[in-house]
Amino acid sequence: MRWPPAPWGRKGRVLPILVLAACSGPQSMLDPAGGQAARIGVMGWILLAGCAFVYAVVLLWLLWALARRHRWVEPGGVLPPQAGVERRLTNGLVAWVVGTVLILFAFVAASYAVDKSLTHLANREEVVVEVEGKQWWWTVRYPDDDPSRSITTANEIHLPVGVPVRVKLKAADVIHSLWIPNLHGKMDLIPGRDNELFLTADREGIFRGQCAEFCGLQHAHMALDVIVHSRAAFDAWKEAQLAPAPAPADEALARGQALFLTSACTMCHGIRGTPASASVAPDLTHLASRRSIAAGALPYNRGNLAGWIADPQRIKPGNHMPLVGVPPSDLQALVAYLDSLK
Amino acid sequence: MSSLSRNAVSLALLGVLLLAACEREERSYRGEPVGEVKPGAIVQGTLYAGAPSPPPPQRREYEGNAYHVSEGKRLFEWFNCSGCHAHGGGDIGPPLMDEVWIYGGELENIAATIVEGRPNGMPSFRNKIPDQQLWQIAAYVRSMQREVRKDVAPGRDDHMAVTPGEQNQPVTPPKPGGVASPSSEGRGP
Amino acid sequence: MPARAIAAPAASPPDDGNWVMAAKNYASTRYSELDEIDTNTVRDLQVSFTFSTGVVRGHEAAPLVVNGTMYVVTPYPNKLYALDLTKPGAPTKWTFEPRPAASAQGVACCDYVNRGPAFADGRIFINTLDAQTIAVDAETGRELWRTKLGDINKGETMTMAPLVVKGKVLVGNAGGEFGVRGWITALDAETGKIVWRAYNTGPDTDVLIGDDYKPFYDKEKGKDLGVSTWPPNAWEIGGGTVWGWISYDPELDLIYHGTGNPGPWNPEQRPGDNKWTGGIFARNPDTGQARWFYQAVPHDLYDYDGINELILLDMPWQGQPRKVLIRPERNGYLYVIDRSSGEVLAADPYFPANSTKGVDLKTGLIEYNEEKHPRVGKVVRDICPTAPGAKDWNPSAFSPKTGIVYIPHNNLCMDWESVEANYIAGTPYVGANVKMYAGPGGNRGTFTAWDPGQRRKVWELKEDLPLWSGALATAGDLVFYGTMDGWFKAVNAGSGELLWRFKTGSGIIGQPISYRGPDGRQYIAILSGVGGWAGAIVAGDLDPHDASAAKGFVNAVSDLPQRTTKGGMLYVFALPQRR
Predict the structure, then answer these.
(1) Can you tell me the ipTM of this complex?
(2) Which residue of A203, B123, C392, C512 pairs with C480 in a disulfide if CB–CB is 3.0 to 4.6 A?
(3) Which residues of C are tagged catalytic?
(4) Residue among C511, C516, C508, C523 at smallest CA distance from C245
(5) Which CATH topology does B56-183 take?
């Protein structure tokens, strides 16, 4: 058989490109979009290289041992003792143990250096974001020295590019973990304890974060979108989020609003600018400006929203949004109103 | 009885026990869309013309299910039941962990009270709480006086411990009718 | 210059033997100039007559006496009785039943209490639990007008005693535990029409802050602070109610009122100073325009509701005569504030508080104790004072004879865990698990005699149960107060020595008064009927197995059901008739 084997043949030359392509994307630690993720990425590569080297050496040694036995020993026979070889083997083994220790030390040193550089990066903040993990979604707040300019949204973090950000991490019920691989490593969200992350996004883009600590039934559907845009676009987004929900523009929307305010929706959700001020479920003041619903379970659009309201337990079984049983005619009005909350 | 048939009986018993355990934990997330007994349609007294109606199936389904009771406990906080009834000891509203039930202490009575409201201050949650959640809350309220199985009642609090815990409550069978509301002499407009 | 504190003269006219407002006079001294009952004769004090109100919830009201008629208002259903004092046994002259909505009971945070009626120009004014103010002809009991001021579906109730100033009835709402927006309203005493309404959160135009507003401290200055010190739209459900006391200085022509706690209790849900909650407003009574404001507890952490009484005194201060107001605050400090400017002259602890470390008199700022800062997901232990404060609504008395303020108050501490409060209109909006227990020393109540001029405690009496009754001082050198197990006590104003006591049928949480009867003799009256926040365990049959019942108060008084029972009875005392 010819080496390299078939996949590496003419057709197979695309495979490495495919493998590399899988490394980029909105949720990949191999495609860093910030200083922190880059350093963690370097650490990842160092670990990968070190481990690959060890793996190769061990495998080569194993192959050599197999070949040696194959060459010198008759089937069923015993390998005769060879003083010189034995000594070389012993020395080699000792050297390898020493090498292993050195490699581990190198890892420790590299890890220390990366950690240290991460803390150096964490020396200032210009934007503070507070992320609170809940079963199974995220509250995202932007506190402000002027509290009337603080923002509350859900399942979506907006960041200005090139600006250091402090992300405060809290949990309301059980332990969660926030992992936005393109921007930083994992950090746990623990009830009753404040953790934090510092990150700076180096380029604009949309990334995906995910809960990385098993937190119950819908752990897998607990994602969030991270949108990195220019400072100007970020400020514009913030201004837009600060505004209360607009009054319904026409009668159909007014009917939708009335339905919202008189139904079970108001028991859990709030819409600023209306009497609905509940807060145990995502704030809906600017729902239609978000990219996804149900913590990344579905992209946001009217169809998905209607489907979600009609039967949330089919889409995300066990989540805390109950089947309310909205009649079809009301559902359309309700969705139209919610869709007007840009 | 032969040892074979004894073994068969033991096996059958074990199977039943296992099945029962499944029911205790079975999670149904949507309730039955058809055939749900609306709490508003339920009688409150214990006197019947003719033979009494059988108890509604929700009693078995919700009171015997740890998932439903624990969801009820979460909703009891979320929907501010605890704002008036505290953690069962009462505040603005009457205590729920004792045996006195002004408007009846069975599951369907409690569900009806939540839906309809009561004249001396209990708000009506009609159209505000979906049916399944309603039954879950009512089942949890029943667990406060330990009128559900011990292995179904919640065992611990996620918050500051202010009560012995539903599981450790003594069983206090409800006294339907109870006493009249202490201030029921007030006549509303 | 007076050698020691006296009541503001314009606000405390000479005693005519009547008792026409809950606080006795505009200066809120609760001092009677009658001296027939004194330290020598008090031992002979005996019951003159009693009257059952027919309601068995917490009786926090002060009875009024006007020219031979006594007026008693009950807790919900807020019946108003007129008793004819000219006849033996004081028979009922008339009864007025306002019939408030029964559902209002479901949004009254701490029992269905009422703190008393007010009298002016032949009319009696009462507030009902369902947020109405009603005027009744004092002679006939005929209803003259009623004005609906609040919405129980938003959690608004009214429990305070109105105050009538210059032909206007001043009233405020309650419901700080329901996410209401607090206000004070002036009604025309003739017609019941709203003259002005000032909100205590929101934009300056709603708060009635205009050109006249000149606060002493920089921290109270700025445009629309009632909006900018809250998260967006949170001021709409931010509390700041006026369910306590109002005082009036005719000379400066200013009314003074406190503003209640911000909502919810969980402070993490409302970052910012949360103006104008937890403070004191001075306002023009004709227009409601604010003159000054002082926030005692910016960004309140512990429900230190700022609604306690404000006693108006004139006293020498560092050699200068000053017009001051005295406020024993819930946070455990006794404030002496210049009532013309809003400057804090002193804020001395009358209770061993550990939730705060003191008040900076230069900036007026209180320093919170970081160790006791409540947090979501954490139980903070041993916070003193508690949510009902070192002292709650139950008013103090001031005697110009001794220059001492007599303060009935609590000695409790608490464990607190903040939890997320979910706003649903018409249901509570609190967000805290609280558990209270006896404070340092083990006694749950303290009766403190405080000399505001010397800035020190003169004497104190330890009471086993929390003190939830008001105090009364008389010219006979006596101070009266009641305990939650039903003892009505008279002590020597100078020394605190117990001179007389009487066991009433139920616990006392009412306000004692003293009047001259049609026969010329001095009488002392008190309502007995346990309840209120402190007595809810008895009045509401609450279960002591839940330490968080009644927002944690049940844990502190779990023995109360063994010490007293429900009741609702007026007791009137006098010396034996001379033969």
Answers:
(1) 0.93
(2) C512
(3) 177, 261, 303
(4) C511
(5) Cytochrome Bc1 Complex; Chain D, domain 2 (1.10.760)
